[in-house]
Amino acid sequence: MAKLDKTDVGILSALQDNAKLNVKELSDLLHISKTPLYERIKRLENEGIIKRYVALVDNKKVGLPLVVFCNISLAVHDDEHIKRFQEEIRNIEEIVECYSTGGMYDFLIKVVLKDLDHYNQFAFEKLTKVQGIVKMQSSFVLGEIKNVTALNIPYQ
């Protein structure tokens, strides 16, 4: 775990809120001169704390309103089968997130699609073709209660 001070947390919080802030705007906001601020940002990037900068797109406004969470169990749990499953999942564009989980299922995937017809097509033409899946349970999102991307970062 990286050791972050109050300034690092301030930088990360500001950039999580608006990644388009330039160094001058960030400098004014945090009351830090530009050169040390730039060096801190570079360090946070180089250490992998800042992984990348992205635009968050509203799925509904781009014609992809259906969000489905699928719990998946694999038949075999050795390294070879798990790696093959992960690689196949990475190559399916409708899957936007995938997590290895403990408990009743092995993986949780998040799928974003146009409608139920497209989900049916996705499930039968893509997901069922992934080797090793023995069980799947789908839950359809009816409404979004909370969706944040910013972490509440503690500093030491």
TrEMBL record:
InterPro entries cross-referenced by the UniProt entry: ArsR-like_HTH, AsnC-type_HTH_dom, Dimeric_a/b-barrel, Tscrpt_reg_AsnC-like, Tscrpt_reg_AsnC/Lrp_C, WH-like_DNA-bd_sf, WH_DNA-bd_sf
Keywords: DNA-binding, Transcription, Transcription regulation
Membrane-spanning intervals of the chain: none
Domain HTH asnC-type: 4-65
Record bears the keyword Transferase: no
CDD domains documented for this protein: HTH_ARSR
Protein's UniProt keywords contain Magnesium: no
Pfam families: AsnC_trans_reg (PF01037), HTH_24 (PF13412)
Domain of life, per lineage: Bacteria
PANTHER family, sorted: LEUCINE-RESPONSIVE REGULATORY PROTEIN, TRANSCRIPTIONAL REGULATOR AZLB
Protein's name according to its UniProt entry: Lrp/AsnC family transcriptional regulator
Originating organism: Chitinophaga oryzae
